[in-house]
Amino acid sequence: MAGEPLLKVQGVETYYGNIRALAGVDVEVNRGEIVSLIGANGAGKSTLMMTICGSPQARSGSVIFDGEDITRQPTHLIARRRISQSPEGRRIFPRMTVLENLQMGAGLDNLKYFKEDVEKIFTLFPRLKERQSQRGGTLSGGEQQMLSIGRALMARPKLLLLDEPSLGLAPLIVKSIFAAIKKLNQEEGLTVFLVEQNAFAALKLSDRGYVMVNGKVTMAGTGKELLANPEVRAAYLEGGRH
Amino acid sequence: MEYFIQQLINGLTLGSIYGLVAIGYTMVYGIIGMINFAHGDIFMLGGFAALIIFLILTSFFAGIPVALLLLVMLVVGMLMTGLWNWTIERVAYRPLRGSFRLAPLITAIGMSIVLSNFIQVTQGPRNKPIPQLVSDTYHFGAITISLKQIIIVLLTVVLLAAFWYIVNKTPLGRAQRATEQDRKMAALLGVDVDRTISITFIMGAALAAVAGTMYLMYYGVASFNDGFIPGVKAFTAAVLGGIGSLPGAVLGGLLIGLIESLWSAYFTIAYKDVATFAILAFVLIFKPTGILGRPEVEKV
Question: Can you give the pTM of this predicted structure?
Fold first, then answer.
């Protein structure tokens, strides 16, 4: 079903206790696309990422992945459908080595493709190769970010969710990460949905984008359209390309 | 000197048993951050399971070889206590996960009372004796080592090696450590967290069953009350070694065993428990993380 979007989020509302973090969100991600979600701190971007993975689950609305409703599925079963996330805060296992963290990523296939995949990750992030036997907790923030992305890629995802991949990284590394994402997208058809504060770089990279304000999607369009939109420019781009 | 060495050997044996039980405390604490106070009673149940299997087997198959008998006692005991502990986690702990911190502690104490009272009611309050299974002893000058002691220590070493391997080198062990360090992230990577926690309870119970069987064989009696004092001692061992640390649990167990036997040998046997629990108090005051426990400082 080429016409069906890979991920379809419809009217999703998510609560933390009594506080509504997502107020009816609709987002679609098609196969082979890079889609970015931009917005200010606290807009609900990371909550949407986690809601897609069922942690927390949406209170109403639905999340459809690959034609199936996954709204009420437990997180680990959603992960087994190959939705892979590099979450907010990186969430590296601090008392596991870099290699073990990557092994955790490859757990779905019982490390079947581990050797070839880990080489790819090491080519992408040579720094991780140097540190492979070091514990995750001792890495610098940037290295942890690379590890988190690498770990997500190890799962051979159909859909890669990246929550602020540029956070804490030097501009040069950000560039190489974004280039790497583009390359994976073009060569392997990897579908990517990313949250970014760095709106300029994200929109430039993306096919389409969404703007989120206070738990709602307020604007949508192609990357180019959003980059040219005066409101977006005023709110997220000008005054310093973060 | 011989006397001292003899006490060391006795302490090592006892310490092995405590160490096996301590591992169960420490693993469960590691993975869900609660003290399973019913674990001592799981150890007691292991002893009773072994005793019952012994009675059944010896009455139906009179000439059964001792090695086979012990093996069946161990394996069936491990399965039975594993099932018990799995059930306890399912009915008493899992529904309270995510509740306030004291809730699982209170149910754990409740489960402990349930188990010991259940055994008291169904098996009777008196000590249950078991005949000597293995009575060979070896003499080296004035030092005596019994085959029982050798079996206990060897079995402990083998189980520890197997455990170390599982936790550090297998996908299951990785999933356990991941769940311990970040449950949410583990789930995001496809780890079935509930199942992993269940398996941890089963593994801890299996070790406790071995310890219970060894304890029964060593002392020759089982009592519904065995979960309490030896259980709390094993808990002390886990705290002394550093709760959450597997090697720490073993080290703590050995130390508690040694302290207990040396204290009994050189001071008064009546105060051996006081000595043990005084250590618990000292550790908690001066080094709450224990000998091998990790300080809670991490880069996030």
Answer: 0.91
